[in-house]
Amino acid sequence: MCGIAGLFDTRGKQNFATELIARINNVQAHRGPDELGLHQEPGVAFGHRRLSVIDLATGQQPLFNEDQSVVILFNGEIYNYQELVPELKALGHVFHTRSDTEVIIHAWEAWGEACVQRLRGMFAFAIWDRNQQTLFMARDRLGVKPMHYALLDDGTFIFGSELKVITAHPGFNRAIDPLAVEEYFALGYVADPRCIYRGAHKLTPGHTLTLRHGQPVPPSKPYWDVHFSLDNAISSRDAQAELMQRLQESVRLRMIADVPLGAFLSGGVDSSAVVATMAGLTSTPIRTCAIGFDDPNFNESAFAQMVADRYHTDHRLEVVKSDDFDLIDTLAWHYDEPYADSSAIPTYRVCQMARKHVTVALSGDGGDESFGGYRRYRLHMAEEKARGMLPMGLRRPLFGVLGRLYPKADWAPRMFRAKTTFQALAMDAAEAYQHSMSVMRSDERAALYSDGFKAQLGGYGAVQIFREHAARSGTDDPLAMIQYLDYKTWLVGDINTKVDRAAMAHSLEVREPLMDHQLIEWLATLPNSHKIQGQEGKYLLKKAFESKLPHEVLYRPKMGFSVPLAKWLRGPLAQRTRDSVLGPRMLDSGYFNPATLKSMVTQHQSGQRDFSVPLWSLLMFDAFLRQAGDGRAPQ
């Protein structure tokens, strides 16, 4: 786990200044505090910050092949690297380290761009092949590891693990992309491959990018996608047995490390399943880490303790006060872009605590997406059934009118909060799911934005992201469709971004066995009945672990990793909310309707409405603007 940074001259072979590559590399020193490495030659400059995890003695980067003609920068882990070594040796390749990094170099020499097909893991890497005069970049299938890049006006191609590598270059133009602002206020993050800045991009997960001197930067190319066939006729009992075998393999591969290793244990089904599997693979007590909250409405630590007691783990718990909101500016710096998921706060804290005891931690991230665990999945399937009863020509006008007329009732019992449901029933499946995932609905964003900013958007809406992915999904099954959408949007843009930045802020490597691509490919063959039965999500996972985990852990209501936002914004954060949302930086930015901002703050703090999520999004946007510069909307 590391930080990488590089410069490539697309027009010629300029010599990049050592001071420049060192400076842009060192802005992400937190990602790799153990070692610093640089490599320069005409037209190329590579920088690396290392967090030593595997092959502590000889795994330094940049790393070269035998004749020094190929050099690599690598962030991540290749879990099947030990399996590839004998095959590559048989092809004549000579190894000088025990690192997974060297495996990638020889895989490139052996198989070229197709090398990524052989790699099982989380990764973002760049290879410079001097003989082929080629820069080759790749990102893992599910976007666990980040990669950002930009083409500067002078022809310099710059890339790095974090966006701050790009913005540290004096030639980068920080003009904000209005479409990215729309995506942020719709989703709470800027969706891949867009960045908050017009000139920067994220390499799309499951894609590669190949550059050569004197040639234009081409579009990235996909090398993987998930296909939902849903045609596996396996029985429930056999599926449970095969799931256990696949999980054991996935966890075993992720327990390879030359440094202290442990696991997050939230008390939820996913992390508990990972810990139970780990305990079955070693006789040494597993180090487990949990965060508790002094507010019982947000505290799952008792359930984590049940699992820790059952498997006799070396369990560490830290209780966080319910007013732990002093990380706003810290998070804005680490995330580089506006990022609105408030669970970044407890995630930051659990990573901070875990790093005191381990260097590598396994997590349960990805379980909800793959096993059908979200409540929104069941709601969407019910809505799809209702949508199927009427043609769009009738649904859109009928439910559109009801959605506009029905009052917003955040205060009411859920069964009476029909406005959002009416709005969703007037939409197609992709639009309805994006609607359900929004931190602010389309009508709310329309009221939020200034007329000038809406003109800048030119009719663009974040729903286009969902429609484009839906068109590529290859399925019209309601559950498979939204699982696919989550793999492409929520999992990458929210979950993986949150965990990567929070973990690397503390030089902690996090591994996700439930995101193993081979496991996901297998789960995508299973019928929906293995994932959701009635009102029970994660059916297969829960049944498989009934003999291994307490019933209270498996079948309790889902809590999530959240914080008391509404309470904060009416109490200890009330003044900061007013000062930020209604301050000159936001009001003068050109993005917002001042009357809407004032109404949201007033109604929320009076208790009339719950605008906690939109207001938190605005708070984090203001924190981003404060660190990014004046942040004015483009004219």
Shape: globular
State the end-to-end CA separation: 41 Å
Q: What name goes with the CATH superfamily of the largest domain?
A: HUPs
Quickly give the CATH architecture of the largest domain. Answer: 3-Layer(aba) Sandwich
Number of helices: 28
Q: Return the CATH topology of the largest domain.
A: Rossmann fold
- How many structural domains are formed by the residues? 3
Number of strands: 17
Q: Which structural class should the secondary elements be placed in? A: alpha+beta
Largest sheet: 6 strands, antiparallel
**How do the strands line up in the largest sheet?**
2-3-1-9-8-10
Q: What is the share of helical residues? A: 40-55%
What value does the Rg take, in angstroms?
24 Å
- Stretches where pLDDT falls below 50 for ≥5 residues? 411-416, 630-635
Estimate the mean pLDDT confidence.
Answer: 91
| CATH class descriptor of the largest domain | Alpha Beta
Describe, in plain words, how this protein is organized in 3D.
A hairpin with a 4-residue loop joins strand 6 (121-129) and strand 7. By secondary structure, the chain is α+β, with helices and mostly antiparallel strands. Helix 9 crosses helix 28 (612-628) and helix 19 packs parallel to helix 20 (490-504). It folds into three domains: 2-222, Aminohydrolase, N-terminal nucleophile (Ntn) domain (Glutamine Phosphoribosylpyrophosphate, subunit 1, domain 1, 4-Layer Sandwich), CATH 3.60.20.10; 226-560, Rossmann fold; 564-635, no CATH class. The strands form three sheets. It has a six-stranded antiparallel sheet with strand order 2-3-1-9-8-10. A six-stranded antiparallel sheet has the order 4-5-6-7-11-12, with helices on one face. The protein has a five-stranded parallel sheet with strand order 15-14-13-16-17, with helices on both faces. The relative contact order is 0.12. Helices cover 42% and strands 14% of the residues.
